[in-house]
From TrEMBL, chain A:
One of its GO terms (cellular component) is cytosol. It comes from Natrinema hispanicum. Residues 588-615, 825-835 have a biased composition (Basic and acidic residues). This is Acetone carboxylase, alpha subunit. GO terms for biological process: glutathione metabolic process. It holds the Pfam family Hydantoinase_B. One of its GO terms (molecular function) is 5-oxoprolinase (ATP-hydrolyzing) activity. Residues 1-29, 588-620, 816-835 are annotated as: Disordered. It comes from the Archaea. Residues 67-642 form the Hydantoinase B/oxoprolinase domain. InterPro entries: Hydantoinase_B, Oxoprolinase-like.
From TrEMBL, chain B:
It comes from Natrinema hispanicum. This is Uncharacterized protein.
């Protein structure tokens, strides 16, 4: 059958199905199962799930119990078809973001919007598309604009169900004989969203109105054809229309392939089997998650905090003057693990959102955490929204983690989101350690940056934008039993890759001058964090071309674990108005790398205006031909005391380009000697090195003695720190503003903070007028929530009810004070029996 | 025990709460029969949460456009319902419940009989017996 025949068949089938749906509507029936409307079905599902502690009241997995092999075959077939659809359809796309990095994912969802199975790829969207579907259901899309066979919907609104607006999703319903039996959705990261600056995640906007186009769960086609209005509208809203058109065809291709697979399964096994499978898979996923938590963690409360910087003071081109201020994200986090395997995360004490694009919505936080959990908690279980039903989150309303304000910008929510996860890796790892699951321990993956972005008139004299996804390839955190993988993947896409340089050069006027492993970027430790890498790019054949950086700068959000060190923090290196062209013509040496930033090597090989500063974020600035830009991709965190690392491993690190020789001594107490100048093992280090075992042993003993001599009792340290806080004299305004913001956000956190540091009840930080004004400005903005019909699953979004849905323990309130686990699957005995 | 609750309006929260709270016992089976005048019971279910708050298992069933009282009685017969409840949607000037046409038709139907009880917000026909 030719593709056009298949398309004709599909349209014919859609028309027939549509007639069946319309006949049901004429009879007063909905498009859900057994004549119910989708909203009735969702309401009933949530009610029964919470009441029974089982997904949709499903206490028995009949299909699975009756014939486990058949159940696994059916599920594996669905999953396999989703993966096949991704692998096939990504070849349709023209951007290396999709074709090289695989920034694409598909999900199959129940009629109520719960994911049954997902493909590989950016499986953060296991849940974000789910929220978009629930939004459509709860806002009566069945009535208007109508949900019919052959319809096509789009969404990229983070307040509805997305991480940030550059993740465009296509969602289509799958019908069988007049009933909506499933949804299929595909999402990919597009190259430009039409924001105020070029690229998919601009950083210079103060509010959402600079983020680019938001498409809020919109119907954009029917009979499997896009509306002409849509085809004319969205290409005009981006700098890269052709790329977005092909991305859309990618998503449509995958969605239609999956729809076809579901139809085939129904034809072979019957619709009732499919319905049963879809329900049981979610319940099975929930039980798998719960059971895994019970097996690998110890009950209790795990507490931590993380921070990351976003510095805007003095930045150019920021859209509002009041947005030119520095921000530090504060993410106090608590993970409650109960005896029944309940998994609850609280961010009580998170500080206020800001006039920057790093704010998050609950869909972003929840979706983001799934992708992390799939890589650590449930790598071998069913990955679907069962995990959603097994977890609860407390995301304080009005904080950066849950702005509930449609004025806030979200273009690069990942910056705060990934940073806020860092303690969660550690919470889980501590549990794994306690239970002896040492192979599972991970010190924490890299803060995924830098993001090379920009645009202007490109080498083909066309308006263009770029977004290098080399950041899909970062160092992985050290494990307890192994070093972290160097330049491996990104936490949000386990299948990520750096992509071929040649592929990037076809779509970016930014030729590669060099690409290499970057030494000293993985955190040091008994097990080293995986190293990052770098690309040195120049600019060629452009006009009015802008570039900018995005990532962590002074602060590293990936703390080490068990005495290991954090990964290296970020910095910016550019050179403009250079003599690179002359160097090429004269065949002179030129910088290909910046592997040892302290060496002065880069500066010695280029003349021009060199910018080197220890920050991670810059706003769009103009670059011209032969200017240079360093794209530095970060490393993962280290684990364990670096003085316990096998010296032979440190020597291997030098020869592999992960550690500079002089830092072997600084960081690891390992003495090496150069024995040959000629050998060249890697780009960073010239020469062959040998270990001086005796000197190393002596140095390490000396270091241990020094540690003992300089060690300070906690009581002394506490007294000194308390004095610093009380006086506030040597604390910078940005730090004081951060804590003051958290204290204003949360009386519980404020009480905890004052109690812990034995501060007066009325204690507050003395802020500058500018900092005070900034806080007042944001706190006075109030809420502009998008959700006006929260379902039970969204109680955490809006703090519905008197009692927090997820308890917090920053103060005297304790998880133990509650009469019982109110959220999700509460009954301990029941959960224990069934799970 | 099986109860049928006839929903004529999505605004009938109070009558549904009264029925579930005062008439129906925990663990009973409930059928929400949605009349064609109501497009969707979703908001009502989200508001009331019958299983969480009242411990009842339930099913939502739409009655087709052009139904008559026989359709309703056939449904009650098929599921051997013990009672039929319907929200009070109209009252006299003095506040007494007005029996609407549907309720009257059920009461007068030959194949069904039972005890007639008027509550605060709902009319209940209980101890149902069925004819041939």
């Amino acid at each position: 059958m030719s593709p056009s025949d298949r398309a004709d068949d599909r349209r014919t089938e859609a028309r027939r199905e549509k007639e069946a749906v319309r006949e049901k509507r004429r009879r007063g029936e909905g498009i859900g199962w057994n004549g119910r409307t989708l909203r009735e079905q969702l309401a009933e599902l949530e009610d029964k799930t919470e009441a029974t502690d089982h997904y949709c009241g499903l206490s028995e997995l009949e299909l699975k119990n009756e014939d486990p092999i058949r159940y696994e075959q059916l599920y594996a077939r669905l999953r396999g078809d989703l993966v096949t659809a991704r692998e096939t359809s990504k070849e349709v796309s023209a951007t290396p973001i999709v074709e090289q990095e695989g920034e694409l994912c598909y999900g199959l969802f129940t009629p109520e919007g719960d994911s049954i199975a997902v493909s590989t790829g950016i499986i953060v969207h296991v849940h974000t598309m789910s929220e978009a579907i629930k939004f459509m259901i709860n806002h009566d899309y069945e009535e208007s604009p109508g949900i019919e066979p052959g319809d096509i919907f789009v969404n990229n609104d983070p307040h509805v169900g997305d991480v940030h607006p550059c993740d465009l999703m296509t969602i289509i319903p799958i019908f069988h004989e007049g009933e909506l039996i499933a949804w299929v959705g595909g999402v990919n990261h597009v190259i430009d969203t039409g924001a105020i600056g070029p690229g998919s995640m601009n950083v210079s906007q103060a509010s959402r109105f600079g983020d680019g186009a938001y498409y809020t769960a919109r119907k954009i086609g029917e009979n499997f054809d896009l509306y002409n209005s849509w085809k004319k509208e969205y290409p005009a809203k981006t700098r890269t229309p052709d790329f977005l058109k092909l991305d859309e065809r990618t998503r449509m291709t995958g969605c239609l392939m999956i729809r076809h697979s579901v139809k085939e399964m129904i034809a072979e096994h019957g619709v009732e089997t499919f319905k049963q499978l879809s329900r049981e898979a979610v319940e099975d996923g929930r039980r798998g998650f719960r059971s895994r938590i019970k097996k690998t963690m110890l009950p209790g409360t795990y507490r931590g905090a993380s921070f990351v910087d976003a510095l805007y003071e003095g930045q150019e081109n920021v859209t509002r003057e009041y947005a030119q201020e520095n921000h530090i994200m504060h993410a106090p986090s608590e993970l409650h693990i109960r005896e029944d395997g309940t998994f609850q995360v609280s961010f009580e004490g998170a500080n206020k959102w800001g006039w920057h694009p790093f704010n998050c919505t609950p869909a972003a936080i929840q979706g983001g955490i799934w992708v992390m959990l799939t890589q650590t908690v449930i790598p071998n279980e069913l990955v679907n929204d069962g995990a959603y039903y097994a977890c609860d989150f407390h995301l304080p309303v009005g904080s950066w983690a849950n702005t509930q304000n449609t004025e806030t910008a979200h273009a690069y929510a990942w910056h705060f989101l990934v940073s806020a996860w860092a303690p969660l890796w550690q919470h889980l790892s501590r549990g794994y350690f306690a239970r002896g699951f040492w192979e599972e321990i991970n010190a924490g993956n890299a803060n995924t940056s830098n993001w090379l972005q920009g645009g202007g008139i490109d080498q083909f004299d066309k308006l263009h934008a770029v977004n290098s996804f080399e950041s899909a390839c970062e160092g992985v955190g050290a494990r307890y039993v192994e070093d972290g993988e160097p330049h491996a993947s990104a936490v949000w896409n386990p299948e990520g890759d750096m992509g071929d340089a040649e592929a990037w050069e076809t779509v970016e006027p930014l030729p590669f001058l060099g690409r290499a492993v970057k030494p000293n970027t993985g955190g040091v430790g008994r097990r080293a964090g995986g190293a990052g890498f770098e690309s040195m790019r120049t600019v060629k054949d452009v006009s009015r071309w802008l570039l900018y950086e995005m990532g962590n700068g002074y602060m590293t959000s990936d703390g080490g674990l068990f005495g290991g060190y954090p990964a290296a923090s970020g910095y910016i290196l550019n050179a403009r108005n250079t003599d690179l062209e002359e160097r090429f013509e004269n065949r002179d040496d030129y910088p290909q790398h910046d592997l040892d930033p302290e060496s002065g090597d880069f500066e010695s090989k280029i003349d021009g205006d060199v910018t080197r500063r220890p920050e991670g974020i810059s706003t769009p600035k103009e670059f011209d031909d032969y200017d240079m830009y360093l794209n530095y991709l970060r490393g993962g965190s280290g684990l364990g005391d670096p003085l316990e690392r096998d010296p032979e491993d440190v020597l291997a690190d030098i020869h592999d380009g992960y550690v500079l020789p002089r830092h072997a001594e600084d960081a690891y107490g390992v003495i090496v000697e150069k024995v040959d100048d000629e050998a060249r093992h890697n780009s960073a280090v010239q020469g062959e090195w040998e270990l001086d075992a005796d000197a190393t042993e002596q140095l390490r003993e000396e270091r241990m003695r020094e540690r003992a001599e300089t060690a300070q009792p906690v009581s002394e340290w506490y007294a000194e720190e308390r004095e610093r806080i009380r006086n506030g004299d040597d604390l910078i305004d940005d730090v004081k503003k951060t804590y003051e913001s958290s204290m204003r956000m949360s009386t519980q956190f404020a009480t905890f903070f004052r109690d812990f540091w034995e501060l007066p009840d009325e204690f507050g930080f003395d802020l500058s007028k500018k900092a005070q004004k900034s806080l007042d400005n944001r706190f006075d903005s109030g809420l502009r929530p998008m959700w006006d019909s929260p379902t039970r699953g969204h109680k955490t979004w809006l703090d519905v009810g008197d009692e927090p849905y997820v308890p917090y323990t920053w103060t005297d309130r304790s998880i133990r004070d509650l009469s019982g686990p109110e959220s999700t699957f509460g009954d301990r005995e029941q959960a224990a029996d069934d799970d | 025990m099986t109860t049928i609750i006839i929903i004529k309006s999505v605004e009938h929260h109070a009558s549904v709460r009264e029925i579930l709270g005062s008439v129906v016992d925990d663990g009973e089976r409930v059928y929400f029969l949605r009349l064609p005048t109501v497009r969707c019971l979703g908001p009502l279910i989200q508001e009331v949460n019958p299983m969480i708050n009242y411990g009842v298992d339930y099913t939502i069933t739409p009655l087709p456009e052009g139904y008559d009282v026989s359709t309703l009685v056939e449904f009650a017969t098929e599921f051997d319902a013990n009672r039929i409840c319907i929200g009070i949607s109209d009252r006299t000037l003095t506040g007494k419940a007005r029996i609407d046409d549907l309720t009257q038709s059920i009461l007068l139907h030959d194949d069904i009989s039972g005890d007639f009880v008027v509550g605060e917000h709902a009319i209940i026909l209980e101890e149902l017996e069925y004819g041939d």
